[in-house]
Amino acid sequence: MKIISLKYPGKCAETGKRLSRGTIVYFDVSTKKIYSINAKKIKEYFDYINTQGYIEAQENAYFDKFISLNYSNFDK
Fold first, then answer.
1. In angstroms, rounded to a whole number, what is the distance separating the alpha carbons of residues 63 and 2?
2. Which DSSP category does 36 fall into?
3. What is the dihedral of CA 50, 54, 56, 59, to 10 degrees?
4. Sheet arrangement for strand 2-5
5. What is the domain count for the chain?
């Protein structure tokens, strides 16, 4: 997803709302569709990405601590 400013009038792919020239929107590069900033699907997508990053960081921290506690004796 990219954030762009419309060069031409368009329509939100989710809500069907007409968007005028110069409106800031999300542009899905793979499907070539535009979504208004207030579209529910976009908010859910970014919530998913933020949650996914948080979970991954927690798993990495857990793994690093596990390694440091269980394999520190083998270095000696």
1. 33
2. E
3. -170
4. 2-5, 24-28, 33-36
5. 1
Q: Show the CA angle centred on residue 57, arms to residues 51 and 63, nearest 5°.
A: 135
The boundaries of the domain holding residue 59 are 2-71
pLDDT in tens, 34-65: 988 876 777 777 777 778 888 888 899 999 88
Percent of the chain with pLDDT over 90: 28
Half-sphere exposure of 55 (CA within 13 A, CB side): 6
d(CA 76, CA 62): 23
Q: Taking a C-beta distance cutoff of 8 angstroms, is the pair 23, 4 a contact? A: no
Classify residue 76: in a domain, yes or no. Answer: no
- How many Å is the maximal CA-CA distance in the chain? 68
Q: What is d(CA 29, CA 35) in angstroms, rounded to the nearest whole number? A: 11
